[in-house]
Amino acid sequence: MRALLDVLGLDTAAVVANSFGGRVAIDFALAHPERTRALVLIAPALTGWEGSPELDAFDEEEDVLLDAGRVEEAVELNLRTWLDGHGRGPAPVSPETRAFVAGMQRLAFEKQIAAYEAAPPPQPGGWSDPPASARLAELAVPTLVAACAYDQPAFRSLAERLAAEIPGARGIRLETAHLPGVERPDELSRLILEFL
């Protein structure tokens, strides 16, 4: 991210991130506070966060499907988990939007599979040490944290924790699953722009 800002000629940026991107954004803000103007964390993950047995079961099921070459089933698992969400039926999105998200997930799997078939395979990236979960009080930028009503319970709890523990953070609740930028893009854009 730092290199990207350099290439773009930006000294600072407001970093907007969803899901695993939230983990990246928080670590970036801790490593480069002088380059982070604000954070918008949407259903974020966090370095040092344990997740939940339900998320571990999801990861295991996804791995089994991908190892067996059942990519379409893994795509559908992701749609049910992240787009449809927890405690409701299919997401209120058009068939075209659902197909678009499925295509993005399929492409991500294809890239991931190809990367791990290459030599050498990808290595773990570097994360904040100590982990961000123990350093939230160090975040000193305006922060908006969105919890999503139909997200997986562990992600809802984490978003609420971040809103409570990041100094001065503002927490909001969206009536979506894990991907509000797909499910309600206009509403999310309006909230982000109002915050910034």
Low-confidence stretches: none
Count of extended strands: 4
In N-to-C order, the SSE pattern is HEHEHHHEHEHH
Helix fraction by DSSP (H/I, runs of at least 4) = 40-55%
Q: Determine the structural class based on helices, strands and strand pairing.
A: alpha/beta
Instruction: Please state how the strands of the largest beta sheet are arranged side by side.
Output: 1-2-3-4
**What's the average pLDDT?**
95
If you had to describe this structure to a student in words, what would you say it looks like?
It is a single chain. The chain has eight helices and four strands. It has helices at 2-8, 20-31, 53-67, 71-84, 95-117, 153-165, 180-183, 185-195; strands at residues 13-18, 36-42, 143-148, 170-174. α2 links the parallel β1 and β2. α3 (53-67) packs antiparallel against α4 (71-84) and α4 crosses α5 (95-117). The longest helix is centred in the middle third of the chain and has 23 residues, at 95-117.
Features:
196 residues, alpha/beta, four-stranded parallel beta sheet
Give a brief rundown of this model.
With 196 residues, this protein is α/β, with parallel strands linked by helices. It has helices at residues 2-8, 20-31, 53-67, 71-84, 95-117, 153-165, 180-183, 185-195, and strands at 13-18, 36-42, 143-148, 170-174.
